[in-house]
Amino acid sequence: MTSPTDYRFLKACRGEPVDATPVWFMRQAGRYMKEYRALKEKYSFLEMCQTPELATEVTLQPLKPLGVDAAIIFADILLPLEPMGTGLEFIKGDGPSIPRPVRTRKDVENLRPVNSEEQLGYVGQAIKLVRQEIEGKIPLVGFAAAPFTLCSYMVEGGKSSEFKITKLLMYEEPETWKLLMEKVSTVLIDYLKMQVAAGAQALQIFDSWIGCVTPEDYREYILPYCQKVMNALKDLDVPVINFSTGTSSMLDVIAQAGGDVMSFDWRINIDQARDVIGWDKPVQGNMDPVVLFAPIPVIKKRVNDIMQRVGGKPGHIFNLGHGILQHTPVDHVKAVVDMVREYKHGG
Amino acid sequence: MTSPTDYRFLKACRGEPVDATPVWFMRQAGRYMKEYRALKEKYSFLEMCQTPELATEVTLQPLKPLGVDAAIIFADILLPLEPMGTGLEFIKGDGPSIPRPVRTRKDVENLRPVNSEEQLGYVGQAIKLVRQEIEGKIPLVGFAAAPFTLCSYMVEGGKSSEFKITKLLMYEEPETWKLLMEKVSTVLIDYLKMQVAAGAQALQIFDSWIGCVTPEDYREYILPYCQKVMNALKDLDVPVINFSTGTSSMLDVIAQAGGDVMSFDWRINIDQARDVIGWDKPVQGNMDPVVLFAPIPVIKKRVNDIMQRVGGKPGHIFNLGHGILQHTPVDHVKAVVDMVREYKHGG
Fold first, then answer.
1. How many contacts, defined by CB atoms under 8 Å, are there between A and B?
2. Alpha carbon distance A115, B164 (integer Å)
3. CB 3.0 to 4.6 Å from A114: which of A83, A184, A207, B102, for a disulfide?
4. ipTM for this prediction
């Protein structure tokens, strides 16, 4: 049984030397795996998230076949919306839909405070169950959305390409926007603390849609709330991963939010990103998820390119720049794990 | 009547001092204007593009109300697809659809060469008509897609979010991809030369979707063809604008393609972009199109921020980072023109 301080993944999060670069994937449990699809035929996505035994089963599904260095609890970034009172539905093929979007001061004032222990306790229970199953093998990552990403869903009522309603709320009613971000941050802090209390050994904060804003909008309307969340997690003694996409040109600004590890996408070479944010800051991510569909030699070239650019320097976690896509060949994902583990620097 | 060498817009494209910063907008003719919507009730989008008198009317629509410093010919980046043989349809609400996508070696081999003078001559005729109308007032910009953006539509069969089929063609069949890019580049060069022969006084090359690739993919699979197109336009003696979005972290790589002016989006501050690509290179773009929906004081703050960051240095064309969005208030667009024109550096 491995002591928590010896996990390769947690060591890399702390910038300590490791025997091999840790590797895991966002959405490593999901539709691309036949075991997941089999379960999905019997239960809805929300049922799977909200039933601890099912969430546990899904979390465990990829671990043995892939041999990854971390598990991530099966859940959804939008789960806090139900107790906040906006409603939450997943419509087949169309993704998430929020029946009562938040667009006015009154909507924001009506948002309900959340007691995560009581109202999102199913996530905590799943975390406890997964920990029992994987104890001593690999650590378990908990997660939540970052404030902007959660608010953008709440305001738009679902996915968006232009984020027009969200940005206009920021511009037209900055006080309403700030109250919304404040309320959401409070919920996220409580939710993340609950996950750590239940046994999460690291946290990832997903700012999946933040790449739509300007650096100055980020500073003015978003950064203070990201900092608030990150600061509140400091005492928990678990590493926190600051994840974003589409932010390659403003990683220095995003890094000001805090977090122990910066996770970014493929629109920048990983060594150039480390030049910007500083080589002492651990990093994660970077491979384009589409590359996993490519022939093995192409995948290998990409993996090797990333590994070579990092040059064996500490504080590197191999991952994609975003989640695994539907229909990704499972054996290609497994191949990446092997490539990363077998890579020899200077070899 | 202004001599061509005196146009504010063309001077800025050449990096020469100007009396006021030139300003125009991508999609300045379009659905946000009631004059356009009135015409659109009688004709389809393709009819409007392909009938020189209608394209001329639409091109002229925004010029007086807005008072912009350049006209851009009303056309669509996908028009060359029809003569190439893939078909082209615009489905209400769903955007463009390509009935016969290009996905195999055979598909690429079957693409037909294009004689732009004959097969896309309606664009040239519209250019001639517009020139007669605006001669001596403002210059006219012609345009085409960049090779990657056009190829991505051809391969995906329409718009895409992941560009999976396009990237996999690159990765799995690089020779097929290169033949496709070669053929498309040849068509684009002929098409752009025809536009200049007809009277276009500047050209803009739209690489609207290039922000989905890694810097290294750009270098290997895309850059040589962008360079080929840009090089072929050098002798035409008109400035060429190299437009892209989502590329803020790799503007140095995109700039290697060539072009006299770099046009980029809002994900980077304009002064930082100029630091990267060099202050001697003229620039365009940068304002988030969503800001045009915001209250006037918010718009003014943004305009002033951009103007202040450029600091009155030559080679600046004010524009958005992408096209004007549907439902944008026309008076807000006009207000931006006035703000730019009235801005006093150091004032």
1. 87
2. 41
3. A83
4. 0.94
